[in-house]
Amino acid sequence: MRARTLAALLLCLAARAVPAQFLSDLEPERPVTIEDARPVSFRSVSGSADWSYTLRKGSLNDYGPGFSLLYGAARGLEAGAAIQYVTRPERNADRGISSGDLTLHALYQIVDESATRPAMAFRAGVEFPTGLDSKGTDLLLAALVTRSFDSFRVHANFRYSRLGDANPEERRDRFEGVAGTDWIMPGHRGLTDTLLLVDAAVRSNPVIGARTILLVEGGARHRLGPQTFLFAGAGSEITGQSDRARLRLRVGLTHVY
After folding, report:
1. Alpha-carbon distance 182 to 199, whole Å?
2. Pairwise CA distance, residues 14 & 7, whole Å
């Protein structure tokens, strides 16, 4: 009898742990830039859909939907695809913002987190010029680090992009560094259904000679069901060109199978 009770308790704890892990699986841009160094679980599928709106100076605002699909191809290995659409593609293309370009990636966890070391992962991706006013195939590389503490986690991302084709005024090699943190916000009756996030990113300006971009963001992921999550985020480019993103809003849903 005691063995059955213990087994039932362990099953309940495992059932609670799985959705909690899904809640804290961070995918870039859903809702903020930062990504954690953990691939999705083996054989699980995560699908997301969102809508973003960007406020720019001079009534050059843009908006559009985005979609992504992640798959746990093996233990420690994630494969994924993403696509984002925005209005004004002819102008956004010069800012390095694609509309309709398909991005494929693989994320491999090099080191799992332990008591003495952070989790580390490597991401490699390719962005194909399938969208409007697009040109060239781009190479995307990133190193990801995550360290967990009692009540929060900290993350660092280092990214490099190499454009396959660029205008004379565009920067072909681009770099980005991101630092962020997330923590569970205890809710009603002690439930842990909401994850809060903040991050800051420094990235190369797509235009040669233009000022480096500093981006700050905040967001949240909230569990609607055992495997369905609502996410929302807001950010602002503090420095950059005059038509930089003064405010970017994003809201969407993620479902894990």
Report:
1. 9
2. 11
Judge contact between 241 and 217, C-beta under 8 A.
no
Write 111-119 long-range contacts (CB < 8 A, 24+).
Answer: 112/76, 113/37, 113/146, 113/147, 113/148, 118/37, 118/145, 118/146, 118/147, 119/36, 119/37, 119/38, 119/145, 119/146, 119/147
Instruction: Tell me how crowded residue 250 is: count the other CB atoms within 10 A of its CB.
Output: 21
Instruction: Write out the DSSP string of 214-231.
Output: EEEEEEEEEESSSSEEEE
Q: Rounded mean pLDDT of the chain?
A: 88
Cα dist from 224 to 31, 214, 227, 256, whole Å: 16, 33, 8, 12
pLDDT digits (tens, 9 = 90+) for 220-238: 999 999 899 999 999 999 9
The neighbouring-strand residues paired with 235 are 217, 248
How far apart (Å, rounded) are the C-alpha atoms in residues 243 and 109? 37
- Exposure string for 15-36, b = 16+ CB within 10 A, e = fewer: eeeebeebbbbbbbbbbbbbbb
Mean pLDDT is lowest, of 75-79, 131-135, 187-191, 226-230, for: 187-191
Task: Provide the sign of the torsion angle of the four alpha carbons 54, 178, 153, 82, taken in this order.
Answer: positive
Burial of 217 (0-12, 13-18, 19+ CB in 10 A): buried
Span 45-104, pLDDT tens digits:
999 999 999 998 877 889 999 999 999 999 999 999 999 998 877 666 666 677 899 999
Residues 108/121, Cβ–Cβ less than 8 Å: yes
The whole-angstrom separation of Cα 64 and Cα 87 is: 6
